[in-house]
Amino acid sequence: MREALRGLTTRGRSFLAAAAAALIAALILGERDLLRVALLLAALPLLSAAYVGRTRYRLSCSRTLDPHRVQVGASARVILRLQNLSRLPTGTMLLEDRLPYALGSRPRLVLEKLGAHQASSVAYTVRADVRGRYEVGPLVVRLTDPFGLCELTRAFPSVDRLTVIPQVVPLPSVRLAGEFAGSGESRARSVAVHGEDDAATREYRHGDDLRRVHWRSTARTGELMVRREEQPWESRATVVLDTRSTAHRGEGPTASFEWAVSAAASIAVHLRHAGYKMRLVTDAGVDVDATEIDGDGPLLDQLADVRLAQRGDIAALIERVRRRSDGGLIIGIFGLLSSAEAELLASFRSNNATCVALFIDSSTWLNLPTAAREEADKAHGVASLALLRSGWRVVEVPHGAKLSGLWPQTGRGSQGFAWRAASAESVAGGVR
User: Fold this and answer.
1) pTM value?
2) Which of 12, 119, 252, 333 lies at 20 to 30 Å from 78 by C-alpha?
């Protein structure tokens, strides 16, 4: 009640002031009718405060996000449902849901009075242009009585989380040579079975059928070896995302890093749906084996949180990838590289992996003077040449390029990449 009295509006306080004046006049003049008026004027704001104070604790609220995960640039609908749990009707309510700045301004909604045990829903739309996880709420409700004499604020503590994932672009089907095959396009055995002495054996394990013992391998190794069961064909791919802050340029949703994150998400989802055993690695600590999760949601949630690494290092990224790498296809999405860093990436070829680089020329995200532009182009050409000489297939990514248009280049044969190598050689010639 004390808090409700503090919530009296200017009108309510004016009623109390008028009641005090009428009471003093009634005592001085000895008018009983004036005393009744004073009591009535005082009773109205007090009853309103009691009414609003009681209603304040008899409301329930629920919030629904539809959907709770959206892509960058998409909208989500927030549905608020309020129910009056008391036997008394409420007054008009002003609803204000607290939102982070990235989701826009706070919505203010008016809800007419609710009858006894009545429920009503209101909705609004939010749109996010920046990846991340955002808290929606808590909801603030301003309650008032029918006469506008008292107003109280209630904040419901519950919050919901909206996840804004990178934009996923549909990609055309492309034959990617070099990966271990499964339900993908190419067909290469993951376990060799060309002859008796091939490595299609493993160490004996307790419970193995002795009829599967491979005596020739046992004699050669000195340990009991058994024939492996027929292995299914499978496609393996590793998507590598370069998160070094020094490799990217631009700010906000249009930065080169946001293009790279969207590309990583699109490629990962595309390969996963094509039946690949897919792994996502960044130098910011993300290492996700997509075969161990259900659906694309957890994978995209990881990319919703990824940020630029201030102390990123290509050598650390290489070590992270090689720690669990077993060959297959490696698709790297790299920002600016020095020639030395590009040469370090040659180590990926040591396990007979097919390596494709989406090489982002992030300097094109800046409006550079002519001389600076020439220097940036030459440096990019030198790094591109180093990648090509290391055995990588290189797809150049300038500002404004669309991933769906670049993706078919990842499946081109060596002739196209040889031509690109010659072009890079001519560009780099000026800095030798």
Assistant:
1) 0.74
2) 252
